[in-house]
Design brief:
With 442 residues, this protein is α+β, with helices and mostly antiparallel strands. The chain has 20 helices and seven strands. Strands 1, 2, 3, 4, 5, 6 and 7 form a seven-stranded antiparallel sheet that branches. The longest helix has 18 residues.
Length: 442
C-alpha cells in the first residue's frame, strides 16, 4: 500500500473515531473525503440540502406563444417537485380560438443509411472515478480507445483545477481534446439514437451527457447529471452498453465493471437523455473529420441544429407539458437563438413545474436568459441557492457577479468574479469580467 493511501486511511480513521460528536468540525472535512465514510457519518458532515427543487417562478401566461402552436396548454399545479422518471404521459390540450394555426411540423427525417444491427468498440480501458470526477474519468476512458495513455488525474488537472468542482461542461471536454491531444472532438445537441448507433458502427466513441436516478440504496441521493461512454449497441436487444465511471455494472458504485459495460436500454436513454437536450461528444482522428460530419449531417451547422432542436422540443413540450425538462430545453434553445425573453419565459415554466435542486450544477441557461432580460434578482437568487453550503460552481459566481455589477454593487460583483476566477483559473470569462470592472469598464 502506498504512503499516500496509508495517510488517507489514518486520516479517515481519525475522523471516524474522534469527530462523530462534532458535526461542525466534521462539516469542515472536504466532501471528497467525507464521501468515503459510512452513510451515517456522511449524514452528520454533509452540507444540508435546504431545497428539494429550485426556487419556483410564476408560469408564463400563454405558453402556446412559446410553442408556436394554436393550442393552449394545461399545466399541472406548481410548486411541487416534478417526477424524474416515467415522463412519457401526454396531454391533449384544448383548442384556443385566440391564436392562428402557425405550428410548423418538423421536417421529414432524411433517409437513413443502413448500419449493422449490432456493433461494439474494442480496446477501451475502464476507469472508476474519484470524487465528482465523472467528466475527467470518462474522457480518459475515451482517449484510451485511441491509445492515448492518460488517467483522470491528468485530465482533471486541466478540466477542473479544484477537486471540489462539481461539473465539467461538454465545451471544456472538447477544448481539452482539441488543445491537448492530437485528436479532435465536438459536442452537439439534438442528438438521436440512430446517429449514436451509426457513430459507434463506424468506430467513433461517443460520450453522452445524461440524467440519472442513482439505483438501489443510493436512490436517496436524488437526481444527478452524469457522463457515460457508449461502447456498443444491439437493436435486437434494444439496448446500448456504456462504460460508467461511477456505477460500473452494478447498483453498488465503484465496485464492479464487467468488460461488456453497463446496460442502457433504448427506452431508458429516451427518458434520461433529454434531461440534457440530448447532448453528446464525439472523438475522432482529424483525418476522419469528413466521416463524422457526414454522419451528423445537417446538425453540424449550429444554426440548423438549433432550429431543428426547436421544432423537435416544441412538439415534445406540446405533447408533454408537465415535463419540466422539456421547458428547460426550450429555454436553452431560445438562448442559442438569441431570443432571451422567450428563453426566460420557458425557464419560468420549467421552474413553475419544479426542477431538481442540482439542475444548475450542470446547465446555466437560466442565468444567461435572466441576465440578458434584465432580471438580475432572479440570477442572484438562483446562484445563491446553488452556492449555499456548496461554493463549488464558477459559473454561478460568474453570473452572480455580472448581475451584481448590473445593479451597481461593484464591490460585491468583484468578490463574486474573484471567487469564480480563483476557483477555476481556466474559466476565462470571469477573469475578463473582473478586469473590466477593475479598469472601469474600459
Amino acid at each position: 500500500m502506498s504512503r499516500r493511501n496509508i495517510t488517507l486511511l489514518v486520516f479517515l480513521g481519525l475522523i471516524t473515531v474522534g469527530l462523530l460528536a462534532t458535526p461542525t468540525i466534521l462539516r469542515a472535512v472536504p466532501p471528497r473525503y467525507l464521501a468515503r465514510l459510512p452513510k451515517p457519518i456522511q449524514d452528520i458532515g454533509a452540507p444540508p440540502q435546504t431545497v428539494a427543487i429550485l426556487p419556483t417562478a410564476a408560469a408564463t401566461a400563454n405558453v402556446a406563444l412559446l410553442l408556436n402552436t394554436a393550442t393552449a396548454v394545461s399545466l399541472p399545479p406548481t410548486n411541487t417537485p416534478m417526477p424524474i422518471t416515467n415522463q412519457s404521459a401526454t396531454a391533449t390540450p384544448p383548442a384556443s380560438p385566440t391564436l392562428p394555426p402557425t405550428f410548423t411540423p418538423p421536417p421529414p427525417t432524411p433517409t437513413q443509411v443502413p448500419i449493422p444491427a449490432a456493433a461494439r468498440l474494442q480496446g477501451i480501458t475502464h476507469q472508476f472515478q474519484e470524487w465528482n470526477n465523472c467528466g475527467p474519468a470518462t474522457l480518459a476512458m475515451t482517449l484510451s480507445y485511441f491509445g492515448v495513455r492518460t488517467n483522470q488525474k491528468e485530465t482533471a488537472a486541466i478540466l477542473k483545477p479544484s477537486p471540489e468542482d462539481r461539473n465539467v461542461s461538454p465545451a471544456e471536454m472538447v477544448a481539452y481534446v482539441n488543445n491537448h491531444t492530437d485528436l479532435q472532438a465536438l459536442s452537439r445537441a439534438n442528438g438521436d439514437q440512430y446517429t449514436i448507433r451509426r457513430l459507434i458502427a463506424n468506430g467513433f466513441p461517443v460520450i453522452l451527457e445524461i440524467g440519472i436516478d442513482p439505483p438501489g440504496e443510493f436512490r436517496w441521493m436524488g437526481w444527478y447529471g452524469h457522463y457515460m461512454l457508449v461502447v456498443a449497441y444491439d437493436d435486437a436487444r434494444q439496448q446500448f452498453w456504456t462504460y460508467d465511471s461511477w456505477l460500473g455494472t452494478s447498483d453498488e458504485p465503484l465496485q464492479n465493471a464487467d468488460a461488456d459495460g453497463r446496460d442502457l436500454s433504448y427506452v431508458d436513454l429516451a427518458t434520461y437523455w433529454p434531461h440534457f437536450n440530448r447532448n453528446y461528444i464525439v472523438l475522432y482522428e482529424p483525418a476522419r473529420a469528413a466521416e463524422v460530419a457526414d454522419i451528423i449531417g445537417q446538425n453540424m451547422d449550429d444554426a440548423t441544429m438549433w432550429q431543428n432542436a426547436l421544432q423537435t422540443v416544441r412538439a415534445e413540450t406540446a405533447a408533454a407539458p408537465e415535463n419540466a425538462f422539456n421547458w428547460f430545453n426550450l429555454g436553452t434553445i431560445y438562448n442559442a437563438l438569441g431570443q432571451y425573453d422567450e428563453a426566460a419565459a420557458a425557464y419560468d415554466q420549467a421552474r413553475a413545474i419544479g426542477l431538481p435542486w442540482r439542475m444548475l450544477w450542470y446547465q446555466f441557461g437560466p442565468y444567461e436568459a435572466y441576465f440578458r432580460s434584465g432580471r438580475y434578482e432572479d440570477v442572484i437568487l438562483l446562484a445563491d441557492v446553488t452556492l449555499e453550503n456548496r461554493p463549488y460552481f464558477e459559473e454561478s459566481f460568474y453570473y452572480k457577479g455580472l448581475a451584481e455589477e448590473a445593479l451597481g454593487n461593484l464591490d460585491t460583483a468583484q468578490q463574486d468574479l474573484l471567487q469564480a476566477a480563483n476557483f477555476n483559473p481556466n474559466f476565462a470569462p470571469a477573469a475578463s469580467a473582473l478586469s473590466e470592472i477593475q479598469n472601469g469598464g474600459s
